[in-house]
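Archive entry. Fields below.
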Amino acid sequence: MTISEPTLALIVLAPLIGSILSFVIGKKVKNLAGWIATLSAIASFGIVYNLFRKLGPKEIFEYSLFNWFSVGDLSVDFIFRFDALTAVMCLVVTGVGSLIHLYSIAYMAEDESKHRFFSYLNLFLFSMLILVLGGNLLILFIGWEGVGLCSYLLIGFWYKNLAFAAAGKKAFVVNRIGDAGFLLAIFLISQTFGTIDFVALAQKIAELQDLSLYVTLLTSVGICLFIGAAGKSAQIPLFVWLPDAMAGPTPVSALIHAATMVTAGVYMMARTNFIFDAAPLAMSVVVIVSVLTAFVAGTIAIAQNDIKKVLAYSTVSQLGFMFMAAGSGAYWVAIFHVITHAFFKACLFLGAGSVIHGCHHEQDMRHMGGLAKLMPITFVTYLLSTLAIAGIAPFSGYWSKHAILASLQSNPNIYLSGILEFSVILASITAVITAFYMTRSLAMTFFGSYRGHAHPHESPLLMTIPLIILAGLATVAGYYGGDLAHYLEHVLPANGAHFHHEELVAALKHSWTAIMGVLVALILYTKLKNIPKMIGSALSPVTKLLEHKYYLDEVYGSFIVRPLEGAAKFLWTNVDQSIVDGAVNGTAQIVDVSGEVLRSTQTGQVRTYMFLMFAGMIALIGLYLVF
Amino acid sequence: MLPLSHYIVLAAILFGVGALGVMVRRNTIVVFMCIEIMLNAVNLTFVTFSKLHGNLEGQIGVFFVMVVAAAEAAVGLAIIISVFRSILSVETTDSGELKL
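PREDICTED_STRUCTURE:
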């Protein structure tokens, strides 16, 4: 049942106004910027929460601002739609967003241009809300590009550092590759079905007489959409931008590159589930890519020493888990993991930010250690989130990851029949690896004795309160998996994925592999510190491979970037400089030279002119006489 | 009466003398006189052909030429005088530049 609800516009309007105000006012009064931005985020959360309470089962709130354009048969409205899936996503975006805004007030307190920071942060919320509220593919795409822009602006926030600015550009360029796929998908859909509205599209596909005629088309649409999702959500082969994106301020990493923007790809897949469900081949591609991504990124994370890089690769790996679920048709499970991941990963990033803040901008874990006593609140929250991401019951990560593995295991896709078992094993190994590298980062940061030169101190309340709230959510969110499944059942097809509620003891038994991973890492990095080094040097080729991220950047550099640069240089020197510029400069030169020659005839001597005049006259008469 | 060719030849010679004078002489006043010679050479042909054809059109043309030549002499001499005032010379080679 569709109900018109004009307040939908207010959800996106609040952060937009906040963005403008925090820039304009914040420029004058620096300390106000953060509070304005935070208040507008909270206002948006309030509106969303209100609508969430009002939304009945099977109801959809809808608000069409205006008819954007109509070309031929295609008519596109600027329409917002608020169903159960949107409600959940909006709550996470604005809720986690508000907490991170609050945290940023303290984290960015000493920054010169924080009005710019908060303005971008609010602009991001605005774009992200457009993305999740968009009622058709094009509105979604506006938000999609908007969050990409904000991501670029915030990664390169400290643009005076050239490496940071380059990281921003890299993120932007890699995302454009994905966007090309997304755009192709939109074109294909609009050309075939004559509409890009989600509801109309779902209906049209459901009404198709003979689905087999459309399988090839839907498969290509699905794969194109997944290319877009892979760009935004950092999957192979487009994940290389996300680790570099850590150049931005840490709250940005928490909000954009962990909790919300990078999950946009998963959301988009859930939103277009009717396409993916009709294209099993595309689904199998999703599963294979996501399993590989999870494994590859997880293994890279083991060898990283920068605390934020560990978390970045962990994010890539967790996004892989989300796509495993989505690729298995268990969309609600993917959204479940989006939510739990938003809580624990935002908490981890903010914890890392707190550590970096406390250690005076030190990010290398080899120069940390022993912070458990110095920063107790940060430690406890980081510990809880680590247990959550490691997938140990009863923390939230266990429930969502368990559901993902279960959905992967029962994947009925015929294209996966040969490799499904292998995928499940690889995913399970990755889950253990997750527990291992997260515990490693925990141990290197908080246990042992302090190895740096700063004087670490606990962060202010403004930073620890969001940490505590997020850690609390990361701990308990798993219990609501059943409720979530029930809440989303009218929007997302369950495809046989159920939430298995378990007793605590049984759940603990099931998480024994994760517990093993945690224990091994704990022993290796607190008691037997020499062993990791010995293993590292004994397997030096493997270590090198992992430290250099499978040499992916190098491979891209020599196979894509360098040839492109070469081609550009060739076109520049040979085509542009010699042909295009040559034509222009040549014309000028001809005029110049002929002027130089003809100039000598203008002597100023009347006699010469007279002579030439007579000579010309005689010549003309001569010509006349001859012909 | 002399045959027609005599008049034409005389006019041609006068014209040639005038043209040569314009080209080779440097004194502006002489050049000026040479132009007058050329004009009068043309006048001579006009009159000749007028007589030949027995109508007055050529002779009217001559009047126009003489009027224009008179005006030209007045303006030309004034220019020569003002040029002489600024560069103290009436040689054409000395006034080869547009600016002073």
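CURATOR_NOTE: The helical segments of chain B are 4-24, 28-53, 57-87.
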